[in-house]
Amino acid sequence: MAAMTTGTTSRADANRRRILDIALAELLRDPDASMDQIARAAGVVRRTVYGHFPSREALISTLLDGAVEAVAAAYAEGLEGAKGPAETVARTTLSVWRVADRYRILVGLAQRSVTVQGIRDRFTPVREACVEVLRQGLEEGVFSSPLPAPALAYVHEQMLFALMEAVNDGVLAAREAGPSAAVTLLTTAGVPGPRATELVAELTRDADNW
Q1: What span, in angstroms and rounded, lies between the C-alpha atoms of 156 and 145?
Q2: What's the CATH code of the domain at 13?
Q3: Same domain, 60 and 80
Q4: Residue 193 pLDDT
Q5: Which of 65, 66, 80, 169 is most buried, most CB within 10 Å of its CB?
Q6: CA 167, CA 84: separation in Å to the nearest integer?
Q7: Winning range, highest mean pLDDT, from 3-17, 20-34, 130-144
Q8: Considering 54, 75, 94, which residue would you say is the last residue of a domain?
Q9: If you write DSSP's letter for every residue of 147-205 in order, what string do you get?
């Protein structure tokens, strides 16, 4: 009986993961994709999808949780080997954007179906790590801003969301978005434009090595 229960649970988990993977692909292809469309793409009946996710909003919220986990992992990867606050901001932004570019349409959907506070809460651990980097940079004089580090971190977070929307709306090319985001965050923190541009260009060229 225990073996049967375990097998049933494993199948249910596998079905849930499959639905999430296909739902993400469908929503990236068509942001207005319905639960019916997602069920058809997954090769299951609508009841199966609703059995795992009671609403489209619940499905998007679950996908957003996965996106946040991926962003947190990318941020941690960007921290590795970074030298100083400016390079840390640039590296983590480039690393995060690689993941964020895949999820940018999802973030736009989430902003319409998940409360703003809910999105902010999910990103709290990453934001707190950003605050420490910004605080260090301000204390060392690498950064210069009238804003304290916690407020500047909020500005950076919202700028990244805005740039995702800019790509979604076709006013910023996706291939330019990562480096553009890194330069924008650095200059917002007070790094001179030429230095920010040079640093991001160097890191972009060496990206395959970190």
Answers
A1: 12
A2: 1.10.10.60
A3: yes
A4: 96
A5: 66
A6: 29
A7: 130-144
A8: 54
A9: S-HHHHHHHHHHHHHHHHHHHHTTSS-HHHHHHHHHHHHHHHTT--HHHHHHHHHHHHH
- Of 39, 54, 69, the one marking the end of a domain is 54
Tokens of 198: 């040079």
> In Å, how far from its chain's centre is CA 187?
21
Q: What is the pLDDT of residues 106-130, one digit of tens each?
A: 776 766 665 555 677 888 889 999 9
Please indicate, yes or no, whether residues 118 and 60 belong to a single structural domain of this protein: yes
Q: What is the pLDDT of residue 112?
A: 65
- By residue range, what is the domain housing residue 22? 1-54
Cβ neighbour number for residue 105 with a 10 Å cutoff: 19
According to the 3-state scheme, what is the secondary structure of 96-134? HHHHHHHHHHHHHHHHHHCCHHHHHHHCHHHHHHHHHHH
70-88 pLDDT, tens digit per residue, is: 889 999 999 988 899 999 9
Residues 92 and 177 in one domain: yes
Q: Beta-carbon neighbour count of residue 42 at 10 Å?
A: 19
Token pair of 150, please? Answer: 């916690």
